[in-house]
Amino acid sequence: MHVLITGANGFVGQALTKHILSQGYVGKGKVSRLTLLDRQFDEVVNSSMLGLVVEQHSGDLADDQWLKDSLGRFPMDVIYHLASIPGGMAEKNDELGRSVNLDATMTLLEICKAQTQSIGRKPVLVFASSIAVFGTMPDLVTDDTPLKPQMSYGAHKIVGEVMINDFSRRGWVDGRSLRLPGVLARPPAETGQLSAFLSDIIRELSQGHTFVCPMSAQAKTWASSLPNIIENLLHGAAVEESKLKATRTFTLPTLCFSMAEMVDAIGSVYQQNANELVSYEPNPMIESLFGRFPPLETPSADDVGFKHDGDLNTLVERALLK
């Protein structure tokens, strides 16, 4: 099995790569070749002892010729399309956001189409969409909730979902779009993600450091641990296509909680007096984007086996696992 990961040097991409290299399987398929794409890599993967071929290609995903040249030599079986320009960065640089989030996705779909038409080998494409597609939300979010994105990033993800559905309908790719919630806990870095504070609060309070939260104690959000997201991505490629007839777009099950509840969980898991360490200074823009999340129901995802962390203490505990 040949597996491709775009955005392989990112937070989720590195964790997915590490898992595949350690286990050697995606679902029941044994991985023989792993291709990793990103703008650059923090380290070179030494595959000599892994029993599979690993290739790392550094370049610009918006360069369609580079993308075609990097992927044109070996047929692909499973594609994880994780690469994107996230919310804050896409707002600041519209051209960059569109070139990566839209143009590169379309180029990747065309590569899948060409492979299917030339050799009859239809790849599975797992697309990392986002809950940013919802934007303004009603009192309850379900599979039928209208999409009203507040940022270009969310709009880009909707376009990706629609085109993956259409290419799947036409038999050119076996696509699955997974709407990821906030993923915890990201390492401290300048990524352009406005939700970085959700990771920072766990890391700082767990170490007994003070933290200023940019949302109110009552603000509610959604999030999952990184291990939970990796489990769902792996499951996303393993689900049989026959089970995807009703929909190919899934809002992943995730936990809904207030910031006060998260602080209590951090205190409980890491034995810190977290309530004395945190202060709340709400930023209206941050709270409007990440702090007004309603309850969530995900029957379509539940039916095909996607899962959340189970409870908030488990999420907090798993969030800092190496």
From TrEMBL:
Organism listed in the record: Marinomonas polaris DSM 16579
Domain NAD-dependent epimerase/dehydratase, residue spans: 3-211
Entry keyword set: Carbohydrate metabolism, NADP
Name of the protein: Nucleoside-diphosphate-sugar epimerase
Domain of life: Bacteria
UniProt keyword Transferase, yes or no: no
Keyword Lipid metabolism: no
InterPro entries given in the database record: Epimerase_deHydtase (IPR001509), NAD(P)-bd_dom_sf (IPR036291)
Pfam family, one: Epimerase
